[in-house]
């Protein structure tokens, strides 16, 4: 039986407590294996008049998928025992908690007993549950609902996109070329990502900027392999390690990267290659399929100015999803990227950003990669180094338009801005 369990902690070393909980949950899983979502941070729900000693420490939250062969009550009792083992004590409902384990679903069963209600009655109102749940099973429909958890998550005001931090390993990237080819710089950025809880790291060794030249498989792997080895070692033995994404359209590169711990493929060709689709299917990894007309981006090859970019993208997505389903790819692992700046004029890219909510009913996750893109020049901002402020402004403007992942260079400012934004909603 596939079950989803919510985890939360806002006392002590929160991340370490969640790590301990994961270790114990691994032991009770029927197949000895669990699947873990990224971590989300949320404000504590503090009622008016709560004791001052409760404080306002935020929660770290996650959802795990577990296989279970016994009854729902037996699983609930196991969760209660784990909470006790980790130091949870009896306290009022909204009191701070060192650990909180909630049984969210039990297969497709609906349970309404005095001691257990499944699905958990608060799921539909809590972004800190729906957001990590959709990262595990975006197309999943909760019993008694008609929408995927991905769609349900986007409908909440507190829905928060994950941050994908870009680490370029190219000597010719237009804004940070060569920086992360130096091991000390790569280490510094990875340390910063770990400290900030950046959930996705995107490594790319071939530039897709306008005018860039395609490189050989051998050259791309020469740049990429040392960084992958270092990254794998850096996050070794951490349950809540960031998702490692590889930005490539070459199946040969993707295959080697998957064997080295990569769990996400970011393909700017939209998985055009049959072998790439086969790799994604076989590995079960997450995959980003991006819309583009050329690779690398060619500013001279764009849609006609009379084209409605949203309608064109909807037609393209529908065709892609039909192809993926026909070939047996898991749509829970699919992530759509409209390809800002790839085959679109600046005005078309801006129109897509303005109308992103028109994609909100898609059952798959949506990623926006607008960071430092050339469309920003339409606002008289020419220097790549000055585009970060514009990028951040756009990110905040589209945050509540149903976006699930923001792919950005300046991940530190985005982490601070999104967290601050969330606190005053």
Overall description:
The mean pLDDT is 90. It contains 12 helices and 15 strands. It starts with a strand and ends with a helix. The chain is globular and about 65 Å long. The strands form 3 sheets. It has an 8-stranded parallel barrel with strand order 8-9-10-11-12-13-14-15, surrounded by 4 helices. Strands 1, 2, 3, 4 and 5 form a 5-stranded antiparallel beta sheet that branches. It has 425 residues and is an alpha/beta fold. Helix content is 35%, strand content 17%. It has 2 domains: 2-147, 2-Layer Sandwich (Alpha-Beta Plaits), CATH 3.30.70.560; 162-423, Alpha-Beta Barrel (TIM Barrel).
In short:
This protein has helices at residues 14-28, 72-85, 127-136, 149-154, 183-196, 217-234, 251-258, 274-283, 309-326, 346-354, 387-398, 411-423, and strands at residues 2-9, 34-36, 40-42, 59-67, 100-106, 111-112, 117-118, 162-168, 200-204, 243-247, 264-267, 286-290, 334-337, 365-368, 405-408. With 425 residues, it is an alpha/beta fold.
CATH third-tier fold name of the largest domain: TIM Barrel
How many helical elements? 12
Q: Structural class per helix/strand content?
A: alpha/beta
**Shape annotation:** globular
Instruction: Compute the number of structural domains.
Output: 2
* Percentage beta strand: 15-25%
In the predicted model, the low-confidence regions spanning at least 5 consecutive residues are none
The total beta strand count reads 15
Please outline the helices and strands.
Layout: E1 2-9, H1 14-28, E2 34-36, E3 40-42, E4 59-67, H2 72-85, E5 100-106, E6 111-112, E7 117-118, H3 127-136, H4 149-154, E8 162-168, H5 183-196, E9 200-204, H6 217-234, E10 243-247, H7 251-258, E11 264-267, H8 274-283, E12 286-290, H9 309-326, E13 334-337, H10 346-354, E14 365-368, H11 387-398, E15 405-408, H12 411-423
Parallel strand pairs: 8-9, 8-15, 9-10, 10-11, 11-12, 12-13, 13-14, 14-15
Antiparallel strand pairs: 1-4, 1-5, 2-4, 3-4, 6-7
Helix pairs in contact: 1-2, 5-6, 7-8
